[in-house]
Specification:
By secondary structure, the chain is mainly beta. Helices cover 8% and strands 49% of the residues. The strands form 6 sheets. It has a 10-stranded antiparallel beta sheet. It has a 7-stranded antiparallel beta sheet with strand order 24-25-26-27-28-29-30, with no helix packed on it. Strands 4-3-6-7 form a 4-stranded antiparallel beta sheet, with no helix packed on it.
Amino acid sequence: MTGCTITGCGTGTGNLPQPGDPNTSGILLTCAAAYGGIDVTWTYPVVNPEAVAYTIIYRSTSALFLSAGQLVIATGNFFYDKTPTANESAVTYFYWIQIVSVNGTVSEVIGPSFSVAMPPIAQVIANLSGQINASHLAKSLSARVDKIEINEQDIITEADERKLNDGSLGTQFNAIQAYSVGSRALITQETTARTTSDSAITTQVAQSYSTASNSISAIEHAQSTTSTAVSSLSTDVTTLNSTVYGNTAAAQVGLTTKVTVLDGKVTSIGAQYTAKLDVNGYVGGFGVYNTGATVDAGFNVDTFWVGKASTKIKPFIISGSKVYIDQAVINTLTFTKLRDETGGFVVADGKIKASHIDIDLAYVHGAMQSSTYIPNYRGWKLDVAGTVENNGAVAGEGRTVQTSTTISVYDAAGTLRVQLGKLGV
């Protein structure tokens, strides 16, 4: 135990280090955001860790210790500070600790460490669901499909009016073009069919293109087939592109099928469907690929969700690198870590943490003790040395201490009244 915090240091009285006290000079206090609260963790002393009785935790919204109040007396080296309301998820909390030894010595103040709590999981799911429900995609998916109307006569009428008004509309067999000052509209279609002694190839490309001032809009639909004696390839790709002042949004949907054979054996076969969206170089999309042996489906997105329009909460959401599930039914579950929203890790590295078992005791660095244990005052403790300390049911009513060689009984004032076994210990 290093330092002292009670007035009287240097006078021979007060909070002075005692023989066997832990050395707290290297203790590290850390805080981490958790769902609905903040994880407060501290390391145990390297020297005499078994002499730690409990830890006092202080908390404040200021970085000044003078503004902090005592939050809790904790055993072990972990405490989950649950924020009482959703609004507190935006508050920065500062934490300090003091280690109290079995001799009653109080360490120097350690800290501060600080963090901001994350919202509770239910609130996170509700927030993400609300954002999804308000998104363009969700609204588009839930809207009815408009009925297709035949508008051929409207198109003919518009073309005739343009010819009468500006005389800029020209036509030819495979292209329709319109020109005005600073603008152009073009529709083209190119079809090619070619054969040789061992192959057949077809291509068909249809384009719609318009430009005015600094904007360009284009649609291209390209189809191709290639057949040889040992291979077959078919592609169908539709691309849309819009650009204004160099800012580009593009969408592409592609279908591909292929088969390749060598010496009568299939060496390559596959069918693929992709949909890609590219906005100024930021690309996302999804696709499916079938090799005949496996089917691979992938999404390159920031947020993925599953739900239906009739429910507000989306039952399954992937946001960034985290998966949120509102309710889950799992037959077999294999994992290495499991944490409770309100209590830290229940399972870590495949081992159940005893401090999370729903009984009135805790496991602290080789010692089993009741959750109410305070040395020489309340509760009970069994340490690795085989020493059992049993305090009265009512705090401060005396205690019994049993070692491998001695049984000692103390009264409420801490005076030794009875001792059996190896005396003088």
